Amino acid sequence: MSTVWKVLVLHGPNLNLLGQREPGIYGSLTLGEIDDCLREDGVDLGIEVTTFQSNGEGELVSAIHNALGNYHGIVFNAAAYTHTSIALRDALAAVQLPCVEVHLSNIHQRESFRHISHIAPVAIGQICGFGLNSYRLGLRALVDYLNEKADG
User: Is the pTM of this model over 0.90?
Assistant: First the structure.
């Protein structure tokens, strides 16, 4: 691979409270620990990983817009905005960067309102229910996708 892929990992609202927020659902790892692991995985994969978390929908929309021309793809845990935000869905559709939707918990085993994702229709795939490994698998899947596209 001649291109060093640049991947943006986006975390949505309340994920800054990981490690203390409902550990029975979200686990005991902090967001910093998750980010550190993803950056380490990036080194192993030969890619650049940048992480960003915001509780604000508009900041996440801006991060997606700013990804255009700066990143090759996005791994995105939109958290509660997954189920409510047309703006995030439209931002992803507008920039047309490959995106993998990830969730720590299995959203399909939870409350019925969490079964709907506005992100999934504009993502190349969705991984949920594996805790930290949802992110790690999402990152690897995105890199495989980028490599396959580059190989034509």
Answer: yes
